[in-house]
Amino acid sequence: MAKKVTKTDDEWRTQLTPEQFAVCRQAGTERAFTGKFWNNHEAGRYRCVACGAELFDSNTKFDSGSGWPSFTAPMDPGGVSTRDDTSHFMRRTEVRCAACDSHLGHVFDDGPGPTGQRYCINSVALDFEPEKK
Q1: Which among 2, 37, 42, 83 has most CB atoms closer than 10 A?
Q2: Nearest to 100, CA basis, from 22, 41, 12
Q3: Alpha-carbon distance 131 to 125, whole Å?
């Protein structure tokens, strides 16, 4: 289980860029095809930009054509949490970091095997740690 990270909005604003704060703390989204990781093909791990928790491995990343980094599964199912999201007149499943409760993106049931899921995640909510060679 991830160690819980709790901070005030002022503490988060000091740590995060305005765009990171808008996405991670206010459940915003970046525009498609603009994030730094949507087209990243390097081997490595993706971490929560807010708390550093390991979230996704590049082995589960795929090109969904959506313009956001997409993964078939988190590294550890307990590393993310989900909740219903009925904003924008849609019904979706929001994905959050289990450690710090940062908004990451959404998960959909239209992904490839083996899970059939597509974790559609904002680049701005992630840091990338390249695999050591």
Answers
A1: 37
A2: 12
A3: 19
Q: Are strands 44-48 and 126-130 parallel, antiparallel or unpaired?
A: antiparallel
DSSP state of 28: -
> Residue for token digits 């949507």?
38
User: Rounded distance, CA 71 to CA 57, Å?
Assistant: 8
Q: What is the pLDDT along the chain (133 residues), one digit of tens a residue?
A: 567 999 999 999 999 999 999 999 999 999 999 999 999 999 999 999 999 999 999 999 999 999 999 999 999 999 999 988 777 677 888 999 999 999 999 999 999 988 999 999 999 999 999 998 7
Active site residues: 120
3-state secondary structure of 128: strand
